[in-house]
Write the structure tokens for this entry.
Amino acid sequence: MNEKAVFENANFWRKGIIQLTESMTEKELDTIPEGFNNNPRWNIGHVMAVWDRVITSSLGESSQLPEHYKELFMKGTSPQNWSDEIPRKEELISQLEIHNQKMQQIASGKLDEPLGFELYHIQSLKEAFLFLCAHESMHLATAKAQQQAMP
């Protein structure tokens, strides 16, 4: 798979999560439906936080997200512990768009490089992009299920 196809795959899933975010109200983004331990806002932010951690760490770059996103959205965090500093819907949408572009810009021409650290079975930056697309699609599906589970 060439770079253009890898980036188009990332764009496809990112477009889906942006459309879902646009379709939800602030209240829906913050609702934790019965049977779930987080909310759609967490799933959306988590996608960016993981992309950022994997790609920037691999390339020796600094984070491309606001600093507090790690504290809000990385594995092990919970919306039940949030303060008032959560990103609002419009900020999430803007970050989703900008961050996707930044990840592709810093990775352009480097997809065949080794990942540089152990992450499951992943060997190269290209494989990391494909894994992160699958991860994003899973969290998109979870956020959609949460939306459908709301009264």
Remarks:
- Residues 58 and 115 are 5 Å apart (CA to CA).
- The domain at 3-149 is CATH 1.20.120.450 (Four Helix Bundle (Hemerythrin (Met), subunit A)).
